[in-house]
């Protein structure tokens, strides 16, 4: 795993250097609309701390950070009105998962039927 790059785009959003369309924010997390949505609702939830991936987050974050982050994911899905019809949350980690931004994040998708979990073809 590579070390955390403090100039990645989500770090810059957290510092207010780049804008975002905010959905939810608390002490632990920031949720905002994805710039290139793949579903009618596509929101990213990021922890406020400097973590690259799920492995990094699980290893180095405090229990309070982990609890706070996952509560924020749930609050975000709830605020977006996704609970009744259903939604998906997903985290890409590393090269095989095509992670583009090296700051741990969860995608929240909803607003339409999302199909099966993974496409059959390699992409
Ligand atoms: P990944 O492949 O790392 O899981 O997904 C990164 C996501 O971040 C992509 O869906 C991409 O559209 C989104 N993204 C990249 N740059 C920006 C940005 O500057 N602002 C926002 N809101 N989303 C971004």
What key phrases describe this protein's structure?
HIT family, subunit A, 5-stranded antiparallel beta sheet, 3 helices, binds guanosine-5'-monophosphate, 20% strand, 123 residues, alpha+beta, 24% helix, 5 strands
Report on this model:
A 5-stranded antiparallel beta sheet has the order 1-2-3-5-4, covered by helices on one side. It has one domain: HIT-like (HIT family, subunit A). It is globular and about 35 Å long. It is built from 3 helices and 5 strands; from the N terminus they run H-E-E-E-H-H-E-E. A hairpin with a 7-residue loop joins strand 2 and strand 3. It has 123 residues and is an alpha+beta fold. It binds guanosine-5'-monophosphate. The site of guanosine-5'-monophosphate has 14 residues, from strand 2.
Brief write-up:
With 123 residues, this protein is α+β, with helices and mostly antiparallel strands. The protein has 3 helices and 5 strands, in the order αβββααββ. The longest helix is centred in the middle third of the chain and has 17 residues.
């Amino acid at each position: 795993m590579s070390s955390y790059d403090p100039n990645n785009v989500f770090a810059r959003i957290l510092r207010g250097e780049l804008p975002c369309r905010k959905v939810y924010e608390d002490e632990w997390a920031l949720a905002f609309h994805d710039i290139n949505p793949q579903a009618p609702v596509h929101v990213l939830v990021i922890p406020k701390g400097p973590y690259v991936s799920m492995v990094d987050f699980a290893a180095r974050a405090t229990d309070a950070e982990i609890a706070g982050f996952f509560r924020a994911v749930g609050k975000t899905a709830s605020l977006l009105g996704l609970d009744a019809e259903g939604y998906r949350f997903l985290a890409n980690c590393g090269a095989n998962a095509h992670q583009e931004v090296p700051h741990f994040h969860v995608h929240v998708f909803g607003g339409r039927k999302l199909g099966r979990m993974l496409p059959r073809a390699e992409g």
